[in-house]
Here is the input.
Amino acid sequence: MSPIIEVENIVTKFGERTIHDGLSLHINTHEIYSILGESGSGKSVLMKEMIMLLEPHAGKVVVLGKTLNHISFKDAQSLRTDWGVLFQFGALFSSLTIAENIEVQLKEYTNISPKMRRKLVYSKLALVGLDPHVGALYPSELSGGMVKRAALARALAIEPKLLFLDEPTSGLDPIGARNFDTLIKDLRDLLGITVVMITHDLESIFSIVDRMAILADKKVVAEGTLENVLQSKHPFVEAFFKNEYTKERFKDKVKDV
Here is the structure.
């Protein structure tokens, strides 16, 4: 599988504080890839660098064959149409209806007619399992799970090749979280997209993630499939994956570790 994202020797600093120091990883096309790490390890910062909200001090980020360092404005605008982002709390515009929230991307990045935009909006609602009447509601009128799905519909509005998810199951009840996992996997298979997600949800990690990177000590300390990562002796990996709860809850996956 060819890499769709390559991160090479990234250095990230905020003032005197170094967040990443020589961080490298690669993400393959069509996989569900998870970024894990201890608090303060720079997971969200790394994702922001991948979507051009932040620029690292050193190193290189390549997305869909485009090197983000010093990318031209025209190329950057084009590249933004190739990904969708679901932020942790949805980040929907509270003053807009759900349909209007989804339509924002279509207005900004396409020249299609209002009639076609409306059709696309409701097709995206259906794609994430929301009824048409939800389009007329405001974010404050939705449950947490519905907000996540509505935000996901917006992220998928312009049919991206890449989908970035920041803690997609946080705040959801266990059933809602598992349903959301299933939705993500089904969308990856149906649309052929690549999914990059920050998560600490063990159920998600053990059920839908293909490969992952573990961030600690300002860099990637383990990367690969679950089987690969479980071979690591790094203290964070040991604490996260090899504690008694995890061994008991997922004993079929970690029995040989």
Observations:
- The longest helix spans residues 174-191.
- The CA atoms of residues 103 and 121 lie 6 Å apart.
- The chain has a mean pLDDT of 90.
